């Protein structure tokens, strides 16, 4: 340890000699709001305490200088810092444009200040729009930038701003190991990254032993006890202002119902903040006996308030970061902090869309005490940061260098390669036919191959491989680049492993079959496998009526009955990959026997096999054929004959079709009452014959709240192949499947 200390001193001495023996590092610290000052103040005190090494200039801008947010520049003066420059940069307004104009105003004013100060380095904190203006100005004026808290992940536009500042900054101080790894992954130079911890933890971890009851009484009243009050701090989410204001209303309603003394802090200066203040005033929060509404609390006092609170609620980063140091329970609402590392004291209510959810969270969290968390720091950040600052060599080139990972050379740079159409090989394993197609990104079937599906496992797999190899070779001739293979098959499938677990009776010798490995080994391409009903739903999501629809159900009406469910834009597989076996919803206790062994399933009434069975019964009794119909002796009776007979006036055939349509409609009603989709898509050869019957049953049998559902017939010519292709195209181009 002594050796390394001496080595460090020697390095600092060498840096001082390089920079000039008498040259002090001129550091400009720019602070924009109360939150970033709580992180920057410990660093500023450290810099001020070492005048032999540093000269400190403080620039104050943003909401610090606005009365509506408490004129928080005063706390900087109370901390005995000389403010070199005050810049009024906030443009009043209530929408996103006001933030853009504020950035523009800061960019106009900052160059003059930086020209006068001529700092060696500027310290910028976090992810606020003001900080982006600071970093942009400094970078363009060739001033080195030290960015605090880069590499972290959260929700809203703050994420993008934080990463943009990272790319402008020359040096980085991060708080967690994950943040450090993110910075390295963003191609930042590892030698210029310091894992120091959060500077505010230097104060937090030594703060709890101080007198606190007088502070609690000052802000919340004389009769308040520790662990028996709530601190609420909620900001607008700039990417969804309307929803965040609604969530704030629900939060206040829940807090009123919870009936505990509550300190409510005003929100940050962001688009939507004025509307949130109006919501507070509309609900009478400032005059409610249980509430204290304040614009600002000094950080030293705020620490004591959250340390001894029964709970903190809202969406502030303070809740998921600093409050963990005390083990105080936190309720994090919405998506503003999505992705941040949190301790076990944080309960996330991502979809805070009802008062009851928030109230239930309060009941779960209030009054608990969790272990203290040191995810974001150990209390020694400032000494590390000062040491890091002293090690900066001002004679090093100013130009940033990025550490890009090695990239393989491109196979080809000729124009034909560049103009290739990204495509997928789609395989459809049906009960009768085996089909392989080349499908383009736009859903165009470029080329299709069809063969009879062999009866044995060995023959079937051999034919699949042969057809895929042939299609992959042909893809070169039609200028298509194959990204992968997608397979649609009947039965229960484990899509994670690419294994057919159990097949339908229509496909023999097709259980516990690994399709992914042999096909991938031969073609050297990634392979995805899924159930044919799920593939139909994916086809609708990418190419059909389901495009852009959040919740919908697809029903396949063919030889059997199947389907797929899309919920919140994602396909549902279920815990054992058995979700959406819609054909086996029972609509009768004593109906006809189904292939699954049960009775009264939709499939036993409405599938092609079921209609064929009923058609044969009529034919055997000479009740099927009517005037205008004829059949050859060797021709097999099919569902098509039943449909034709019904169209030509055969009342018995028509009755069978109506019963089948009613059974399907009852199944759809059950789906509506279970999943509540906004859209039902009927796919397959029988869809157009059933759509009106299904709508009639919904109107008669469904609850009024779901009767408005849209029921449509698929307009996709080949949903099985298109769905198999979408398995590949969605994953390889962007989506995670």
TrEMBL record:
Amino-acid positions noted as binding Zn(2+) in the UniProt annotation, renumbered to this chain: 584, 594, 596, 601
Pathway: Amino-sugar metabolism; N-acetylneuraminate biosynthesis
Active-site residues, as the UniProt record annotates them: 532
GO cellular component, one term: cytosol
Domain of life from the UniProt record: Eukaryota
GO molecular function: ATP binding; hydrolase activity, hydrolyzing O-glycosyl compounds; metal ion binding; N-acylmannosamine kinase activity; UDP-N-acetylglucosamine 2-epimerase activity
Catalytic activity, as annotated: an N-acyl-D-mannosamine + ATP = an N-acyl-D-mannosamine 6-phosphate + ADP + H(+); UDP-N-acetyl-alpha-D-glucosamine + H2O = aldehydo-N-acetyl-D-mannosamine + UDP + H(+)
Compartments it resides in: Cytoplasm, Cytosol
Amino acids binding an N-acyl-D-mannosamine: 492, 504, 532, 581, 584, 603
UDP-N-acetylglucosamine 2-epimerase domain segment(s): 53-390
GO biological process entries: UDP-N-acetylglucosamine metabolic process
Keywords attached to this entry: Allosteric enzyme, ATP-binding, Cytoplasm, Hydrolase, Kinase, Metal-binding, Multifunctional enzyme, Nucleotide-binding, Phosphoprotein, Transferase, Zinc
Keyword presence, Mitochondrion: no
InterPro entries documented for this protein: ATPase_NBD, ROK, UDP-GlcNAc_Epase, UDP_GlcNAc_Epimerase_2_dom
UniProt family annotation: In the N-terminal section; belongs to the UDP-N-acetylglucosamine 2-epimerase family.
The protein's name in its UniProt record: Bifunctional UDP-N-acetylglucosamine 2-epimerase/N-acetylmannosamine kinase
Organism of provenance: Bucorvus abyssinicus (Northern ground-hornbill)
């Amino acid at each position: 340890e002594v050796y390394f200390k001496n080595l460090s001193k020697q390095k600092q001495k060498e840096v001082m000699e390089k920079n000039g023996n008498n040259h002090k590092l001129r550091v400009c610290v720019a602070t924009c709001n109360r939150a970033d000052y709580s992180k920057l103040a410990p660093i500023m005190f450290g810099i001020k305490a070492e005048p032999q090494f540093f000269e400190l200039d403080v620039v104050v801008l943003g909401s610090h200088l606005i009365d509506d947010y408490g004129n928080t520049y005063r706390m900087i003066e109370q901390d005995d810092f000389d403010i070199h420059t005050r810049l009024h940069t906030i443009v009043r307004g209530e929408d996103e444009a006001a933030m853009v104009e504020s950035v523009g105003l800061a960019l106009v004013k900052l160059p003059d200040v930086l020209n006068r100060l001529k700092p060696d380095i500027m310290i910028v904190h976090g992810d606020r729009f003001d900080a982006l203006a600071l970093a942009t100005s400094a970078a363009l004026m060739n001033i080195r930038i030290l960015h605090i808290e880069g590499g972290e992940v959260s929700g809203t536009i703050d994420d993008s701003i934080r990463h943009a500042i990272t790319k402008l900054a020359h040096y980085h101080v991060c708080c967690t190991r994950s943040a450090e790894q993110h910075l390295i992954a963003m191609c930042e130079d590892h030698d210029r990254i310091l894992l120091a911890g959060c500077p505010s933890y230097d104060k937090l971890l030594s703060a709890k032993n101080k007198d606190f009851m007088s502070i609690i009484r000052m802000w919340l009243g004389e009769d308040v006890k520790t662990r028996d009050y709530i601190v609420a701090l909620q900001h607008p989410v700039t990417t969804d202002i309307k929803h965040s204001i609604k969530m704030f209303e629900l939060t206040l309603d829940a807090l009123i119902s919870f009936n505990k003394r509550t300190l409510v802090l005003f929100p940050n200066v962001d688009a939507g903040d004025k509307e949130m203040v109006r919501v507070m005033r509309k609900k009478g929060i400032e005059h409610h006996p249980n509430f204290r509404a304040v614009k600002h609390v000094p950080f030293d006092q705020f620490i004591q308030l959250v340390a001894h609170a029964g709970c903190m609620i809202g969406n502030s980063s303070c809740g998921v970061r600093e409050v963990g140091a005390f083990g105080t329970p936190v309720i994090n609402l919405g998506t503003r902090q999505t992705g941040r590392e949190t301790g076990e004291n944080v309960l996330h209510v991502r979809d805070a869309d009802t008062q009851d959810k928030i109230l239930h969270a309060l009941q779960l969290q209030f009054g608990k005490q969790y272990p203290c968390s040191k995810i974001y720091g150990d209390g020694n950040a400032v000494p590390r940061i000062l040491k890091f600052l002293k090690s900066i060599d001002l004679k090093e080139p100013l130009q940033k260098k990025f550490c890009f990972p090695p990239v393989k050379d491109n196979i080809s740079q000729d124009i034909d390669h560049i103009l290739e159409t990204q495509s997928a090989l789609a395989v459809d394993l049906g009960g009768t036919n085996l089909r392989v197609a080349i499908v383009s990104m736009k859903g165009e079937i470029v080329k299709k191959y069809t063969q009879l599906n062999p009866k044995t496992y060995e023959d079937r797999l051999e034919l699949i491989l042969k057809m895929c190899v042939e299609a992959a070779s042909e893809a070169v001739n039609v200028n298509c680049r194959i990204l992968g293979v997608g397979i649609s098959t009947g039965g229960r499938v484990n899509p994670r492993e690419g294994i057919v677990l159990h097949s339908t009776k229509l496909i023999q010798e097709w259980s516990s079959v690994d399709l992914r490995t042999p096909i991938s080994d031969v073609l050297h391409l990634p392979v995805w496998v899924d159930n044919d009903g799920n593939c139909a739903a994916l086809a609708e999501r990418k190419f059909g009526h389901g495009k852009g629809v959040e919740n919908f159900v697809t029903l396949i009406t063919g030889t059997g009955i199947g389907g797929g469910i899309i919920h919140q834009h994602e396909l549902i597989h279920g815990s054992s990959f058995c979700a959406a076996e819609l054909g086996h919803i029972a609509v009768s206790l004593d109906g006809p026997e189904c292939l699954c062994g049960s009775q009264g399933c939709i499939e036993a009434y409405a599938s092609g096999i079921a209609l064929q069975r009923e058609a044969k019964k009529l034919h055997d009794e000479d009740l099927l054929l009517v005037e205008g119909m004829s059949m050859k002796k060797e021709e097999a009776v099919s569902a098509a004959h039943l449909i034709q007979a019904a169209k030509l006036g055969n009342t018995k055939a028509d009755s069978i079709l109506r019963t089948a349509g009613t059974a399907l409609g009852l199944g759809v009603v059950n789906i509506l009452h279970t999943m509540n989709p906004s859209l039902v898509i009927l796919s397959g050869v029988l869809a157009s014959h059933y759509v009106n019957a299904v709508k009639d049953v919904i109107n008669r049998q469904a609850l009024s709240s779901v009767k408005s559902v849209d029921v449509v017939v698929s307009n996709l010519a080949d949903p099985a192949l298109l769905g198999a292709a979408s398995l590949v195209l969605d994953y390889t181009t962007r989506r995670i499947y």
